[in-house]
Design the sequence.
């Protein structure tokens, strides 16, 4: 199946997606729904994590229940996304509204798993894809919990760092130990310095004990760097800061609040950085510095050039 995909990707890059053979199309028609369903099932567990971890509740002890009346959710109402649609977003017992957050997290997880699947080789049984899906799931939890509570649970960041071990020894991620160590330091150290200095400045001005960049964000970037390497971290951070700036301006003008969580935007940046960051950095280096790439593989950038009429 892997050869099948490789050939499909190669063909696509050389001649455009229209030339793909029937069997390649069939392969994706069969595999993408499987990955998506897997994603929405994982997503419904992530909902539980996002709600319960900040409250200090057990993840497994109590069955899913309505947040208003406490009624146990029936087995047939546990189907991700679809149950919410069938119930029209209301509890079967008390009729109270169920937050649209649940189906949104579920379908987001499904879509991102499919994106991971397409970007990372199109092979269902690959360790690389599994690690990337765990990474995606952790980022979804971190992002939503930070959005809700302005707090990042460092244990989740450490779990991301732990992914670096199987990624380094068991997959062909192509990162050296130095790539990973530089990745861990290149963003977190500037973040740490900015955080410390802004903390001192804010304390002098207002007496409050807040930092411009919280320690949780710094730890997250260090751990992610260990897993992704520096080439992915640079665009990831750039995208994260850009999104935070844009959304910060919007939130401030709509709500008038200036304090906001940085984590969700960093998570979005990290996701995009994990998918396309290394290629972007490679392409940037190759173009800007005139460095020829040895054995340039069929990747996002090459595909993009061939997909878009840039030639
Ligand atoms: Zn209820």
Sequence:
């Amino acid at each position: 199946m892997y050869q099948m995909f490789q050939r499909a990707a190669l063909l696509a890059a050389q001649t455009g997606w229209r030339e793909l053979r029937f069997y390649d199309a069939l392969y994706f028609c069969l595999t993408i729904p499987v990955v998506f369903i897997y994603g929405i099932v994982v997503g419904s567990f992530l909902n539980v994590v996002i709600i319960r971890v900040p409250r200090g509740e057990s993840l497994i002890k109590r069955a899913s229940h309505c947040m208003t009346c406490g009624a146990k959710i029936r087995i047939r109402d546990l189907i991700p996304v679809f149950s919410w649609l069938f119930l029209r977003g209301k509890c079967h017992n008390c009729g109270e509204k169920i937050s649209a957050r649940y189906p949104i997290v579920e379908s987001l997880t499904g879509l991102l798993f499919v994106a991971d699947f397409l970007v990372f080789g199109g092979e269902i049984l690959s360790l690389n894809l599994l690690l990337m899906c765990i990474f995606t799931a952790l980022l979804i939890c971190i992002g939503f919990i930070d959005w809700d509570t302005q707090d990042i649970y460092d244990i989740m960041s450490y779990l991301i760092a732990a992914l670096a071990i199987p990624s380094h020894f068991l997959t062909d991620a192509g990162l050296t130990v130095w790539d990973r160590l530089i990745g861990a330091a290149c963003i977190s150290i500037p973040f740490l310095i900015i955080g410390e200095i802004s903390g001192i400045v804010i304390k002098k001005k207002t007496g409050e004990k807040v930092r411009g960049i919280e320690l949780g964000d710094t730890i997250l970037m260090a751990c992610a760097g260990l897993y992704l390497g520096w080439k992915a971290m640079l665009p990831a951070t750039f995208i994260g800061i850009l999104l935070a700036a844009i959304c910060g301006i919007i939130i401030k003008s709509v709500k008038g609040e200036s304090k906001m969580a940085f984590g969700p935007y960093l998570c979005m940046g990290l996701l995009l950085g994990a998918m396309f960051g290394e290629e972007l950095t490679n392409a940037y280096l190759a173009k800007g510095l005139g460095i020829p790439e040895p054995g340039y593989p069929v990747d996002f950038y090459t595909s993009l050039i061939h997909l878009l009429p840039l030639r």
